Structure formats: C-alpha cells, structure tokens
UniProtKB/TrEMBL annotation:
Coiled coil: none annotated. It comes from Zhouia spongiae. Signal peptide: none annotated. Gene3D superfamilies: Aldehyde Dehydrogenase, Chain A, domain 1, Aldehyde Dehydrogenase, Chain A, domain 2. PANTHER family: SUCCINATE-SEMIALDEHYDE DEHYDROGENASE, MITOCHONDRIAL (PTHR43353:SF5). The keyword Cytoplasm does not apply. Belongs to the aldehyde dehydrogenase family. Keywords: Oxidoreductase. The lineage of its organism: Bacteria, Pseudomonadati, Bacteroidota, Flavobacteriia, Flavobacteriales. Residues 55-498 form the Aldehyde dehydrogenase domain. This is NADP-dependent glyceraldehyde-3-phosphate dehydrogenase. Pfam families: Aldedh (PF00171). InterPro entries: Ald_DH/histidinol_DH, Ald_DH_C, Ald_DH_CS_CYS, Ald_DH_N, Aldehyde_DH_dom, Aldehyde_DH_Superfamily.
Length: 533
C-alpha cells in the first residue's frame, strides 16, 4: 500500500476493510443487513484501477427512522421514567461500570490511533494525545464523581428545614460529536452524561466514525442495556425523528450552530430541552507592540494551524499593532512556509490532508474574496491547492468587508489585521457574534491588566502570551453569545448533565429517620451539599 509520495510503513497500513456490520442498541450488538455507507479516507492511495484516489476504509450502516426509533425506545425504556436500573443505581456501581469501560478502552489504543490518522488526517502525535487525553478525562471524571459522593453525608438546616440535596440525571440525552475530535470531544459529552445516570443515544460524526468500532463491545459489556445506543446516518434521517418525538431531555452537540438550531426546532417542547452546546468561535490574537515576537509567532503558528486550523479554539483572526506589523508579517509568513505537509504518520509533519471534501475549494473562495477586496497573500506557498489540501495562506491586510473576517474558516488561512489603538480590536470582539477565547500578547502590565479586566467580560478565557486552547480538561470550556451553551470540563460537565433536586423536611423524629436511612443506604443518586441553598 502506498501513497503518491511514499510507501506506508507496515504498522500504519490498513489491511482490511472495516465494515461495521453490527450496531449497538438496547444492550445488543445487532447484525446489520441493510444498506451501507462507504467510509473514505482523504488520504489517497492506489486503487484497483492503478489510480490514486481517496482510500476506501470500510462502511457503516445507513440508518433511517426505524433504527432511530429503536434506539430512542431503548434509551427511554432504560431511563424508565426515572426508575430504571441505571438512573437509580448506587454511585459505587456506576463507577464500577465506567471503570470497566475505560479499562477495555485502554487496550484499543493502537487501532483507534491508526483510524484517527486515516479517517480525519490527524498527525500521529496529536492522535496519540487525543486518545490519552480521553482516557485521562474518563479517570478524572470518575474521581470528580467520587468527590461529589464524598460530600454527601451532610445535612443543611435553615429556618428549621433540612435540605437533603441530590444531583440527579436529566433523562434521555441525544449526543452528537464533531469530526475534529471524534473521540475526545464526543466523550467529553457522552461520559459525564452517562455517569450522572442519564441514558443516551449517540451519533458519531461523519468523519471519525469507524474508529469507534473497537469500543462497541466495551460499551455493551460495561453498561446496562439501553444506557448507550449508537446510531449512524444523516442528521435529517436519524437525529430529526428522535428530536421530533419530544422525548429527548438534553441535546448535547459539539458542532455548528446551524445544526444545533435545526435540531432544537424539531423538538415540539423546546422549553423542556436542556442544551449542552459547543459551537463556532472566531478567537482572535491581539499582538501588542511590546510583545515578545519569537514567543508570539510560535504561539500564533500553533494556535492558528494545529490540525490545520480545524479546531473551534483555533486562532482565526490575528490583530497586530501597526508599529510591529511589518516585522511580524515577514517572520510569521516565513515560518508558515517552513511547515511540513505530509501524511499523518510521517515524522515531523504539521500539516495534513483535510478530511472534508470541498474544504480546499471553500478556503480558496475565502482567499479569492480577500484578494479581490485588497488583501495580499504574504507567504510564497499560501493558497497552493491539491485535491485534499490547500497550503495555509497568511492574508494581509484583512478588513471587515471580507468574508474571512466574518466566517469561521475552520481551516488553513490566517487573516492578519493591523490596528493602531487597542479600542479597535476590543470593539470588534464586543460586536462579534462569538465569545469563546482571546490570546493577548504583550509585556507591559499597565496595558495588559486593564485589558484583561475588559476581555474577561467579552469572552470566557483570556490566554496570556499563549495560544487559545481547550485544555487542560479540568478548566472550564465554554463561550458567550453564539459560541456555547453550558460549560464542559471535568468538573462542570457533571453539573451540565444533571440537576439539583432536594428533599426538604422539618425536624421530626420520623422525618429524620427517613433521611438517615436514605443517606445510610445511599440508595440512588448521591446527596451533595456542594451547591446548597
Ligand atoms: O474544536 C474545538 C476543540 O474543543 C479544540 O480543542 P483543543 O483546544 O484542545 O484543540
């Protein structure tokens, strides 16, 4: 097996087609005999006609409404109006199920890392990081959940009323993950939803779907039936009927707002729907004239171009103070041209093929629009296009009339905007539709400190002399305006997927006995005083 440029090393070859011929519903791996959808890699290899073409990796079931309804029924039955086995299970037992799952998952590192590379073109070290980070996320979630449980054996009393606080599940969760982190971000939704006692229907992203196949058995054998149900297919054929049923309590999605709005609109009782959404962002870097340019350029390269800029946290606008903009541009453009493009498993590769067909042409459209409106491409290789890639272009000067100023490019193009006064980028951030993060580069505390005070009121994370990012996963991950609803992190996600309820009781002998008994037996959801009154 070889690509246009080289033989593929043995350990990274895909030997056989991975046809996902079973699907997980109601605790069973059911045989799929219907229509299937082929799954292609963006990486081109020689096909049977001797031509280089996207590599066929395997297939997934082409599901439609009947299978969507089957999964929905299974999830609703498992929740069983709050009295199902899973939502009422003891904390220690839920933890045991999750530990069983993660231990099995750890054994699947090699095939999952390999499929991350083939399916979405993520380079080897980032694919390994995605896997390891996910495993760590699950262990951290288990610890956080134990901590909530440890806080439980307490009562709070006010005005003669005891409050016996619980954190309970919300019900049935529809969970949709993104293609750029098909494992880590999907699990950042799924794992907290499950451990809090919800039941789930999960639809993997279109790219990054086969890599979940090695985990189906682990899901099946770790959780009671109906807790995890997996559907494949197009949103309008599987997710829409699920939403239209009105039986979904939580929509958990990391992706674009168009899909999020369309799905919410399908739900007949929107007010009942809890949302956990990670959406678009247009995170800017602000480079002040006293910034350390070596450090700033390193961070801006990583921030704008890790995984080819296909990250919601990527730097998507770079504001540079006029005094230093020429020097910044020259050095930045040189560095971008020095980045290595290649297949994900090749040593030192930073830029890799893009998984979305049509993405290079979309990025080219943004570049052409900017050029027509007065910008130039600063780097020599910028905008060079092949079937599955477009070399990153540094565009300057970018203005508000250009599409690349407004649209979330989610790919390799970096718009640079000069500014004189700091009010200019601040005004832009304040009037943007997004509000996830900002990177601020500079040294003078007299300028920086008031800017931070301002920026924390416009976005949710200010990165001081460093690029924007989500991790470490124990930190809150959220956004203002159209960037997010609810917060994800090891700590916050457990709250996002649960609700505080409580038993209130007055001080009588029999009430106290009942409460003592509830606490002693720890019968169901734990009692926690963490958010008391
Ligand atoms: O696509 C958005 C991701 O949450 C980015 O995560 P990251 O900053 O860890 O790459």
């Amino acid at each position: 097996m070889k690509t246009q440029t080289a033989e593929i090393p043995e350990e990274f070859q895909i030997d056989n087609l991975l046809n996902q011929d079973t699907y997980l519903v109601n605790g069973q791996l059911k045989k799929w005999s219907g229509k299937t959808t082929p799954v292609y890699s963006t990486i081109h290899t020689v096909n049977e006609n001797g031509e280089y073409a996207p590599t066929l990796l395997g297939s997934i079931p082409y599901m439609t409404e009947p299978e969507a309804n089957e999964a929905l029924e299974a999830a609703c039955d498992a929740f069983d109006k709050g009295k199902g086995l899973w939502p009422t299970m003891k904390v220690a037992d839920r933890i045991e199920c999750m530990e069983r799952f993660v231990r099995q998952m750890e054994k699947q590192r090699d095939p999952i890392v390999k499929y991350l590379m083939w399916e979405i073109g993520k380079n080897l070290s980032d694919s390994q990081k995605e896997f390891d980070r996910t495993v760590e996320y699950i262990y951290d979630t288990i610890e956080e959940y134990k901590q909530l449980d440890r806080d439980c054996a307490k009562f709070e009393k006010r005005d003669g009323v005891y409050a016996h606080i619980r954190r309970g599940p919300l019900g049935v969760v529809l969970c949709l993950g993104p293609y750029n982190y098909p494992l880590n971000e999907t699990f950042a939704l799924l794992i907290p939803a499950i451990i809090m006692g919800n039941t789930t229907i999960f639809k993997p992203a279109k790219h990054g779907v086969l890599l979940l196949s090695p985990l189906l058995e682990a899901f099946k054998s770790s959780f009671p039936k109906g807790v995890v149900n997996i559907v494949y297919g197009r949103g309008r054929e599987v997710a829409a009927p699920i939403m239209q049923s009105g039986r979904i309590d939580v929509l958990a999605l990391i992706g674009n707002s168009k899909s999020a709005v369309a799905l919410q609109d399908q739900h007949p009782y929107k007010n009942r729907l809890r949302l956990v959404l990670g959406l678009e962002a247009k995170n800017p870097a602000i480079v002040l004239s006293d910034a350390d340019l070596d450090l700033t350029i390193n961070e801006c390269i990583a921030g704008a171009l890790s995984f080819n800029g296909q990250r919601c946290t990527a730097l998507k606008l770079v504001y540079v103070q006029e005094k230093i903009v020429d020097e910044f541009n020259r050095r930045f453009a040189e560095r971008v041209d020095a980045l290595k493009f290649g297949n994900p498993w090749e040593e030192g590769v930073q830029l890799t093929p893009l998984p979305e067909p049509g993405k290079p042409q979309y990025i080219k459209g943004l570049i052409d629009d900017a050029l027509a409106k007065g910008a130039s491409i600063l780097n020599e290789k910028g905008g060079e296009i092949t079937e599955n890639y477009i070399y990153p272009a540094v565009l300057y000067p970018v203005t508000k009339e250009m599409r690349v100023y407004e649209e979330e490019q989610f790919g390799p193009v970096i718009p640079v905007i000069p500014f004189k006064n700091i009010e200019e980028p601040i005004d832009d951030i304040a009037s943007s539709n997004y509000g996830q993060q900002v990177s601020l580069f500079g040294k003078d505390i007299r300028t920086i400190a008031p800017l931070i005070d301002n920026l924390v009121n416009l976005v949710c994370r200010v990165n001081l002399n460093s690029s924007c990012q989500r991790g470490p996963d124990v930190y809150p991950f959220t956004g203002r305006k159209d960037s997010a609803v609810s917060t994800l992190s090891v700590h916050d996600a457990l709250r996002s997927f649960s609700i505080r309820t409580f038993v209130a009781s007055k001080d009588t002998v029999y009430n106290n006995r009942i409460l003592e008994d509830l606490l002693g037996s720890k019968a169901s959801n734990f009692v926690s005083t963490d958010y008391i009154l």
